[in-house]
Amino acid sequence: MTRVAVVGGGQLARMMAPAATAMGVTLRVLVESADVSAALAAHETVVGLPGDDEAVRALLAEPRPDAVTWEHEHIPDSLFAIADELGVPSRPGREALLYARDKIAMRERLDALGLPSPAWRVVETEDDVADFLSVHGGAGVLKTARGGYDGKGVRIVRHPADASDWLAAAADGGPRLLIEEKVAYDREVAMQVARRPQGEVRAWPLVESIQRDGVCSEVIAPAPELTPELQHEAERIARLIATELDVTGALAVEMFQVGGRLLINELAMRPHNSGHWTIEGAVTSQFEQHLRAVLDWPLGGTAALAPVTVMANVLGGAREDLLGAWPGVPDADAKVHLYGKGVRAGRKVGHVTLMGDAVDATRKRAAEVAAWIRDGGDA
Amino acid sequence: MTRVAVVGGGQLARMMAPAATAMGVTLRVLVESADVSAALAAHETVVGLPGDDEAVRALLAEPRPDAVTWEHEHIPDSLFAIADELGVPSRPGREALLYARDKIAMRERLDALGLPSPAWRVVETEDDVADFLSVHGGAGVLKTARGGYDGKGVRIVRHPADASDWLAAAADGGPRLLIEEKVAYDREVAMQVARRPQGEVRAWPLVESIQRDGVCSEVIAPAPELTPELQHEAERIARLIATELDVTGALAVEMFQVGGRLLINELAMRPHNSGHWTIEGAVTSQFEQHLRAVLDWPLGGTAALAPVTVMANVLGGAREDLLGAWPGVPDADAKVHLYGKGVRAGRKVGHVTLMGDAVDATRKRAAEVAAWIRDGGDA
After folding, report:
1. Which residues does chain A have with pLDDT short of 70?
2. Superfamily name with CATH number, domain A187-374
3. Of A23, A306, A336, which has the smallest distance from its Cβ to B338's Cβ?
4. Taking 50 as the threshold, does the pLDDT of residue B379 lie above it?
5. N or C: more exposed end of chain A, with fewer CB within 10 A?
6. A:179-238 residues touching chain B, CB 8 A cutoff
7. What does the pLDDT look like over A41-67, one tens digit per residue?
């Protein structure tokens, strides 16, 4: 019996379970507590944190998983060491994952590969910030090298003083900082690929990602007016990263599009919000593909099944009883995914996918359903 | 938290789990033993048989399921009685399920509704059989009223003596018998619908079902050269059955097509092999639709996503290590579903779905992958 261990109990681990079930793969998940999102769906669960060696040994115990993978980047070295000791392949491995955990390491590596980033530099003082702002239009994006997600650890700065508290924290042992050019982009796009250890890489169509308040709100697949040239360039970038960084499993490359140019924003080495559309919208979902990749199985086809697929996130709203709204969903074709998470304002608690022929009409339908669920049916 | 109880631990219960996970519905399954197909995927499991009142009470215990449903027809009256006592709706209910459990009751009811069956009669003696054969071309299909499936409880008879052992068993308290006309059909088709208690019925496209040795081997969706008239007639039949028999949940009507006419062969009031193609091939899968229907939620869209979807069953072959063949599956677009069941020759242990533009090419691809898996990669 093939078995995959997953670290992390959020919705990404949860959504791996249906793919594992179909393939006859047992999914054993290390969950933070028995009531997190993945606990309902996981085939086997171990309760504990990634830094808890006893829990990690239980996760990797006999019957031994064929591989261990992650639904987030916060994996301590001790976990990799235990996996090595027990002979369970870490996929992606420690070296690859570094570039998804540390934005300074990532930028340095991308520069070395000749891949396109926004202008950037490490900053340690207000003078560093002032120097950068003076040559990049007076505004920049300050980021913590580690620990950021969904708009956290990211701040727009227009004056050196805007950075002073984070600079002080960094000097005091907090996360190092970098500043990036504030790109005047046309749109944000994301390229998803998966790579198996044997070397095979497969790419889905490039998608457009629409952010609101620093959080992904909508994904349109394929990106509207996608040209073969843009798809080719996005694939070139993502394939080079996957191969050169020895990524195994899913890789999402979030990018800014400026005319025909692409600039790399973020990397994620796991299934990613920008790929949820693939569950219904592509021949192979990112969750199935991730499992196939970490098992070193041949990868699946990545073609889109409809002219347009739109994914809209459901963010927590004022009401906590949103699950009760499901039965009233006002669109029979909407595919609703709820994550079984407690509702907090702005928290991703589910998503909705709609497939269609036209971008605007499909976006409108997806947004209506997402709002309906958010508002407990009062939309 | 919405919760559905399911009786039966086979692949039909197993494949309800991914749909339940996506909808945030907890699936609690009564499984025959801890190692059956559904046990891996079920969110909560109770081990026991449907006739074991203690197990049934555990299945329906607090937190109380919102409904109880079945993945097979062998539901004892005691189970319905306990569900009634505890206030858990049985969907479908005892009266509806009778017509899927007892072929004589079914034929009588279909006749009363004016729906098209092959010629048939109850038989108790060799003379009854002889009379039937003499007016229906010298051959008939003898069936046990109860307990048959996948070619079991069905026998072609050409002489009254062919029926003598079953007639003796029936006279001795075994299942009653009926004989049906051996229809010279053009092809076998299946119509799937789902109905919710509130009354809404939705139908998928009619499919062609190809049997080998009395077991479904392939399903082609939609049925090749499906005309609007044939779809309309198939829907009319299935909607009438669903409504008049008060079916809740999925209903499959297996039929013989003779020219433009349809004759009803079998009924199944649950997800059915002829609907597995809907997992990837339709907007809403039969498993999601069944759960929505038994919860009395609005039903989902049923449109097909590709010009052709072909489902091929994987039957057990000579080798028992077939799971190991998965990584070698020679078609990146094949969607492979393994049920986690022990391999026995002829047993359904999984299925493969392929979507495409042309019937013949898609059938060929599906058959090749199914054979590859069956033969452990030696095909």
Report:
1. 149-151, 318-325, 377-379
2. ATP-grasp fold, B domain (3.30.470.20)
3. A23
4. no
5. N
6. 202
7. 999 999 999 999 999 999 999 999 999
Q: Is A41 on the interface with B (CB under 8 A)?
A: yes
Q: What is the pLDDT of residue B192?
A: 98
A43 touching B, CB under 8 A? Answer: yes
- Pairwise CB contact (< 8 Å): B355 & A283: yes
Q: Identify the DSSP state of B71.
A: S
- Amino acid A167 reads L
User: Complex ipTM, two decimals?
Assistant: 0.93
User: What mean pLDDT is reported for chain A?
Assistant: 94
Report CB contact under 8 Å: B350, A24.
yes
Yes or no, beta carbons of B327 and A297 under 8 Å apart = yes
Round to whole Å and give the CA distance between A155 and A345. Answer: 20
Neighbours of A329 (CB within 10 A): 20
Better-scored residue on pLDDT, A151 or B222: B222
Inter-chain contact A333–B298, Cβ cutoff 8 Å? no
Report d(CA A305, CA A302) in Å as an integer.
9
pTM of the model: 0.95
Query: Does B26 touch chain A if contact means CB atoms closer than 8 Å?
Result: yes
Across the interface, which of B297, B301, B340 has its CB nearest the CB of A24? B340
Burial A75-93 (b: 16+ CB within 10 A, else e): beeebbebbeebebbbbbb
Cα B80 → chain centroid: 21
- In the 3-class helix/strand/coil scheme, how is chain A assigned residue by residue? CCEEEEECCCHHHHHHHHHHHHHCCEEEEEECCCCCHHHCCCCEEEECCCCCHHHHHHHCCCCCCCEEEECCCCCCHHHHHHHHHHCCCECCCHHHHHHHHCHHHHHHHHHHCCCCCCCEEEECCHHHHHHHHHHCCCCEEEEECCCCECCECEEEECCHHHHHHHHHHHHCCCCCEEEEECCCCCEEEEEEEEECCCCCEEECCCEEEEEECCEEEEEEECCCCCCHHHHHHHHHHHHHHHHHCCCCEEEEEEEEEECCEEEEEEEECCCCHHHCCHHHHECCCHHHHHHHHHCCCCCCCCCECCCEEEEEEEECCCCCCHHHHHHHCCCCCCEEEECCCCCCCCCEEEEEEEEECCHHHHHHHHHHHHHHHHCCCCC
Inter-chain touch A14–B21, beta carbons under 8 Å: yes
pLDDT of residue B325: 58
- Which positions in chain A touch B22 (Cβ < 8 Å)? 18, 279, 335-338
What order do you get walking across the sheet with A140-144 strand by strand? A120-123, A177-181, A140-144, A154-157
Q: Say whether residue A354 is in contact with chain B using an 8 A CB cutoff.
A: no
pLDDT digits (tens, 9 = 90+) for B166-179: 999 999 999 999 99
Contact residues for B123 (Cβ-Cβ < 8 A; gap 6+): B129, B132, B142, B163, B167, B177, B178, B179
Inter-chain touch A298–B24, beta carbons under 8 Å:
no
**Domains of chain B by residue range:** 3-90, 119-181, 187-374
**Candidate from A18, A26, A338 with C-beta closest to B18:** A18
A299 close contact with B: CB closer than 8 A: yes
Contacts of B173 (CB under 8 A, 6+ apart): none
CATH 3.30.565.10 fits A119-181, yes or no: no
Instruction: Assess B338–A contact: CB distance below 8 Å, yes or no.
Output: yes
Asked whether the predicted pLDDT for residue B258 surpasses 90, the reply is yes
